[in-house]
Structure formats: C-alpha cells, structure tokens
Amino acid sequence: MAESAESNAPANARTIREAIDNVLENGSVAALVTIVQSDQLMVGSKLLVLAGARTIGDLGDAPLNRMVAAATAKFLQTHAEASMSPIGDLAPQLNSLASTLLLFERIEGEPHLVVAGAGHVGASLARLAATVGYRVTLIDDRAEFVGRELFNSPREQQINLITASNWAEAVRDSSGSGHGVSIAIVTRGHKQDEDCLRAALAANPDYIGMIGSKRRTNIVLQKLGAEGFAGEQLQKVRAPIGLDIGAISPEEVALAILAEIVAERRGGAGGSLSHWRRE
Q: For the chain, what is the largest distance between any 2 Cα atoms, rounded to a whole number of angstroms?
C-alpha cells in the first residue's frame, strides 16, 4: 500500500502542476492549499481548488477537503496573495485536526493593464505599470507613438506595443477573458473613447477607467447608455479616471490612475492611511 501511494504521488503532483498551468493560461483564478504543520496528516499534502469549488489533489481527510473547498471562496475575496490558518479557526467541528496549519496561496496570472492611447499620460502609465510588475499592452492608432525605440529600457521591452487600425478590435483582442485585466482609456478624443469603451464593457474586465473632464466623460457615458448599455455596467466605469491626488504632470496623472487600479485589485479604499489621526 505504501508503495502504491508513493507511486501515485508524482502523478498527483504533476496533475496539480498541469492544472495550475491551465489556470494561468486561461486567465482564471484558483487557490492552492498546503498542509504546513500537522500531527495527524502528511505535511506537504496539497489541494488545488478551482472555480466552482472543483478540487484536484488530497489533504488526506475527506471532510477537510470539503471544508477547504468551501473556505477558499472567502480567501480569494480578501485579495490576499497568501494566508495561514489553523483548521480550528476555519472548522471548529474538525476538533481532531484543530492544530493542523494550512497555507492558502492565490494562483493567478500577473495582472494585465491595457492602455488605450499612447500620448503623454498613456506612455507614462505604461512605463509605471511595467515598473511595478504589470503585464502591459499599449495601443495607439499612430505608429510613431508606439515605436519600440520609445520603450527600449529593459523593463519597457516587456510592454506589448500595438498599432491599431481599429480601436475597438485592438482593445477587445488585448483583453482576453477580462479576468485580471484593467483597461485605462486615455485617448485623444470622444470618438476614440467611445470605441474603446464599447469594447471594454463587452470584455467585462476587473477595472475600466476613462480620462477626461466630468463633462466629457458624462457625454460618452450618456451616449453609450442611449445605445443600450446597462446603467449597472456604466456605473462601474471610473470616469474621470484615477484618485484625487492633485496630479498635474502626465507622470503624476499616471500615478493617480495606477493607484486607483491597484486599490481596485487589492481591495483598498484609496484613502489616507493616517486619516485616523485627524478624526
């Protein structure tokens, strides 16, 4: 029996690795749960929890597997990359395993930022996002604005540059499933904004923001509402884009935009961390 379990271990690990690769390739999200401390169960046992609470692997206890599958959704909602939890906190009913310690790890591809518009703000945003670890796609219909010679530092070499013959198609094709994707619309005019926003709404990404004054952005949103886009969809659009940090220069505006995108991804409120001192 021990020999059989031993021979199955590599196959099980390989199956989990293959499933993780699929999660990353498909732009979805999952959680890998590992036993890191236990007197009753095998340390290092893993359970991968996929969408719909579907699981691959085994922690060595069927009730524990079911509990972990149910608890994973709550973990993923926290936006945390990892979390350590004793079973006693998660499922008091499993008192025989109360001291067992579980490590929850988020499995998700690197965040992807699609920037529509490679003017001063768009280019600055693409560079800044690449610096902090985002996968970046920068789109413009002017080839001279997305030339590789403009983005040739080692970090900027990772920016995917696209010359768009059609704004909507370029945004749609760059957004994939929409999961893990943020779209920042910073083009030079109403028409381009409208085309990009239509495609962005259809892609249903995690974040959509559009640059412009309140008047300009309201004109675009009202027009799309008249075309039949649901009010709930349009309400999710951050327009004007970014946090209010008093930004003036293109680089500062880019910082304000990226700060809002990070806050949305991480579940942050976007306020001052020291506000409590002044209450």
A: 72
Helix (H, G, I), strand (E, B) or coil at 56: strand
Q: Residue for token digits 């505006």?
A: 253
- As beta bridge partners, residue 102 has 35, 85
Residue type (1 letter), 73: A
| pLDDT, tens digit (0-9, with 9 covering 90-100), for 238-257 | 999 999 999 999 999 999 99
Are 97 and 137 within one domain? Answer: no
The rounded distance, in Å, linking the Cα atoms of 40 and 99 is 9
Q: What is the DSSP letter of 227?
A: T
What pTM did the predictor assign? 0.80
Number of domains in the chain: 2
| pLDDT single digits (tens) 98-137 | 788 999 999 988 899 999 999 999 999 999 999 999 999 9
93 and 116 both lie in a single domain? no
State which residues form the domain around 70. Answer: 2-108
